[in-house]
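re: that chain from earlier
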Amino acid sequence: MSAITSPDPRAVHDRDVVIDVPARARSLRLLRLAVADAAADLDMDLDAIESARIAVDELATLLLSAAQWTRLVLRIDSADRRLRVRGETSDARGEVTEVQADRVVRELLAVCVDDYGVQGGSSFWFTIGVPSADADPSSER
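^ sequence. v structure.
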């Protein structure tokens, strides 16, 4: 996981989009759509939009596998030409297991996002910056 300190997952700003859904696999479609829409609003290219969709799907799936949660709240902030996404679960039923991302998931996230993290098995975050207009499109992140 990334060693960069995460934003406060409970901080909500007026500009944030907040989505509160049941913590179930079928809710991930709504989260992917919301993150893709926020990325498109930032004029991200199709690869970056897909990266955002993949990141929210992979990270939320990690949390859903750690426990039987009641709710999953996603906060999307797109200020300063950066897409910042924070997810937080609530009300675990039963034991919460440690979140373990395998090598494939870690490598996939490293390619998709600038920074990411999972905290305590109950929250995650990731950021994606919008490439500058003068960036070389053939260069990799």
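The chain is about 30% helix and 25% strand.
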